[in-house]
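Notes, Module 5: Reading structure tokens.

Key idea: the token line is not a picture. It is a compressed description, and you learn to read it the same way you learned to read a sequence, by spotting repeated patterns. We will look at two proteins. The first is printed below with its tokens.
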Amino acid sequence: MVTFLGTGLLGGNFTRALLSKGETVQVWNRTIEKAKALEQYGAVVCNSPAEAVKGSTRVHIVVSDDAAVNEVLQMAEPALEPGTIIIDHTTTSVAGAIERTMQWAAKGYTYVHVPVFMGPANALDSTGFMLVSDNEETIRNIMPWLETMTDKVLNFGNVTGKAAGVKLIGNQFLIALTAGISDMLALAKAVDVTGDDIATLLDAWNPGASTPQRLRRAIKGEFDKPSWELQMARKDTRLMLEEAERGGTKIPGTATTAAQMDKWLADGNAKKDWMIIASGDL
């Protein structure tokens, strides 16, 4: 018996995928209509978290944040089976993941934080990435279950909470990327370039492909043989800001980066590779 607490877009499709694989799944959601929508696929809808976990030794939870995880698990606790394994897919704080791991272990239960890089379509198709970090025995015990939900499980070792940190870092990159796209579209409007023009450029020239290489360069601190000097990158940034202002718009992400460049320039790094700004705050 499997339980899913939280059946929004992600939890709902996780449930459907498990049902399609022959699992019996009991579900609960704060908005009951979202849970009832899964009845047509064979889910057993329950009116409370406690009712949903009865008879299950494997409980998955996908809710909004640390507070919601704590609240829902507190409601479920009176009916948890001895030795229940709780698998939490919620994006949470590192401290919250560590604290819950310790608290539930003290109560005789295994809590494992398994955040994901999966959209609803991935949850339904059992694709995308799951992240895990815990002691080796725990990971070994839950891995067969995770591998039925995706074939891409990234194991970050035995440091509790690391998976939570990696998840937040990944989301940070997505947010920064979207902020960059926002600035790009604003500048494009200012200089009379269309979105289709930008798409044509990126279809041919994919700067995202160099992200791992850029990251490794920043980690290693290799800035003495520049491919783009910081002073030249700052000059181009000035041109971007001037064109945006002339076009009556703002590119706030670029302005923030320009301010960071200025700090490094003031510290004598004009001829260093511009990636030096990624090496940490001055």
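Here is the second protein, with the sequence above and the tokens below, as before.
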Amino acid sequence: MSGHSNFRLKMTSPGNRYNISAGPSRGKPEVSGKRGRPMISLYNLLLPLAALFGIPYYAIRMLLTGKYRKSLGPKLGIYSGGELFSAMKGSPRIWVHAVSVGEVTAAAPVVAELRKDYPGACIVVSTSTETGQEMAQRLIPEATALIYYPLDLSFVVDRMLTRVQPDIFILTETELWPNFLTSCRRRGIRVVVINGRISPRSFRRYRRTRFFWKGLLEGLDGLGMISATDACRVLALGAPPAKVSILGNAKYDSLAFRTSPALQAEIARKLNIYPGSPVFVAGSTHEGEEAICLSVYRRLLAFNPEFQLILAPRHVERAESVAEQIRQAGFADVIRLSEINDDTQRRGERVVLVDVIGELFRIYSLATVVYCGGSLVPKGGQNILEAAAWGKVVFYGPHMDDFEGEKALLEVSGAGIPVADEAELKEAMLSLLADPDELRRRGEQGRLAVTANAGASRRYADLIEFHLGEKRSLPVAP
């Protein structure tokens, strides 16, 4: 493995943060050697077995929900006409991949920085999900083209790489597909991870098959990780120390600069909610949490009969079953956001059910109190920073494994409040609602904490430019 070996892990102030400095190779990307070939061969032997079980599952989902219909053809490399690829002009050619909505949020400010530095670049953005594609259309206007990430079949991958012809491939967060990465190495395409994170659950899973992932990680050119914890995990999986940097979380940048009074006023008009109205927003809820939130809402109504509830399930395809839960809980006056989008006027319905994607961020701006889902059930939590960026106190359960850094940041500022169960959630919310000044103070501290941590997107852009040969040294987090 070529490159410098000047890895060091050191404490830096403020906040006892860690920093990994490195000097990766500037030479031609290394092609995977004999050691990795048996693993790739085994992987490709297992793919048909996975397809045997996966195809019927996705076919049923497609028939029942309509999901995957738009994306299946493009994921197989099938695009109508050649206009999309003929429009991919400019230099350098940068392919940025963001799996779904969360990764798109992180990639957006990085792409914006790259566009500033390379006005004539061809920047292609891919997503794996249809919801991610819709979010990319909203958040990344700087992209030259939007495509779907190909299925990890060698012939599909090779076809798409031939069409896009990237100089560098940027992977947002950490999702490793062996055939794609192997093909990039074979073609001499640099591969860099940005906003890299490995959740505890993913780490436990990857660690059991470290022998497989080690070869893939060695073939990457650079890994920019969010935190020292993420860096230590990827090192434990076999990433070369000289290629790992800690550069922070680009989602802070995305959120800090997306908030605005105009955005808040726009959603307030749409939902017919007056300034200062008491609103409970339950965001990104999973099965089992809606019943809890409806029970909490009933208690909030006893505290203040003017309280309104905006309930946003994590998966919008559950909207019908959630609507039925709301009615069975005694709230017949419920309106869906899709109805409002179709010009149905909201007239006093106490409950708004969010059954469309891409609206939750600005809906948080209307909240008096927020519960963030995936946390009272063992789902690893959801992004609590979206509400905090608007100056809102966020309540969440004990299952926040996927957002440890965000949780720590908000708890230090007082804007993140962990609860053990439904009873504790009710008690904690009512306690803060009884002290509006303290509620506002804590929310503002959370907003300032999010703003203060901005700047990672610039560092990730510098990391990319280093591997393009435009920068002489690697970025280092403050």
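Summary for the second protein:
- The mean pLDDT is 89.
- Residues 260-452 form a domain with the Rossmann fold fold (CATH 3.40.50.2000).
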